[in-house]
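User: Here's a protein and a ligand (coproporphyrinogen III). What would the complex look like?
Assistant: Let me lay out the input and then the predicted complex.
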Amino acid sequence: MSDAIVESAAVTSIEAGSGGSRFVRACLRRPVDRTPVWFLRQAGRYMPEYMAVRKHHSLLEICRTPEIAAEVTITAAERLGVDAAIIFADLLLPFTPMGLDFEFVAGEGPVVHTPVRTLEHVKALRTDRVEELQYVARAIEQVATHFAAPRADGDELGIIGFCGAPWTLAGYMIEGGKQGGGDRNYIETKKMMYSDGAAWSLLMEKIVTVLVAYAQQQVEAGADVIQVFDSWVGKLSVRDYRQYCLGWTTELVERIKTLGVPVIYFGVETASLLPAMSETGADVIGLDWRTPLDAGWKAVGAGCAVQGNLDPIALFAKEDVLKEQVREILTAANGRPGHIFNLGHGIVPGTPVENVILVVEWVKELSALGVTQR
Ligand code: CP3
């Protein structure tokens, strides 16, 4: 390593130390000693440790038992050596206190038994029982206690709380979950959105009310950052996103930011939506893998940090192909403050754990050396 590189690493590590966590500093576009890295769905079915826990407990049992949720969160973060731990929970947990029954059906994903289809249904949704979600906060407390001490390199691990975005949660509520994620047309959801303004507005308002209270519980318990998942926002045209969703999402983001934490706003198939998404005021925009990182960053503007954006399926590639993709993403970010390395969507079952660990090592190595700066 040249003297110049050693010197600049020393300066930035002092800065990183003073800010607690390089992950949080990167969210705020402050300088860091190297690019922070974590993965969407890092504690899931690809990991033998998770599957061992899953043998004895359902997904909802894991989510609702703070000791187990904390253990799963911690195990994944430590096994991978990442810079942030996302709390083990699910987007749909707030449905229960709102009065919507759901279950996870093997091979199908979430199913809501009585989908929300009318103004009367929306009126019946409760917003006064968010306290019932405190089990997530208790799990966050345990994770925060576990990671309270700085790591060997002086950096604190970031703790991420999360919730859904109004559009994506409304999609699950109205379709009933059977849309299977991103592959359907969201007909019922869009019908309400286009034709029943009163129901749609009330639904959005209720979702935002619940999510703000839920995010507050998570922040008070020790979450350093809140990520808002708008996984299926790519189903919307830019005009419909602006007309029916942007205002509500902006309100959610603004109100979470007043809790004193940065907000990461993430969606998939968002190339055309990125400029509008950045208008929410989110500190960080998550980029999927379809857009090159530098083009995505240009689209959200210099006022946002970005997170991404390796294709999760590239984790199945052979080592040299995978490493080249990691290098390309770091090169596209060019060492600019405000890049968090991640995937463009979640890790899928079957992903080789050793490749995930290799990516962490490469991100650390390549970004600390500055070899990916042009
Ligand atoms: O480390 C982690 O990221 C795990 C924590 C986590 C889960 N769900 C646990 C889970 C997180 C961050 C989520 C968020 C979530 N949940 C999203 C947004 C993220 C994304 O992928 O876009 C969404 C859309 C959901 C809703 C949901 N939950 C679906 C569609 C499914 C089925 C997915 C499938 O592949 O079967 C779930 C189930 C779920 N939530 C699993 C996990 C680990 C897998 C099921 C299991 O363990 O039985």
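Summary: Residues 3-369 form a domain with the TIM Barrel fold (CATH 3.20.20.210).
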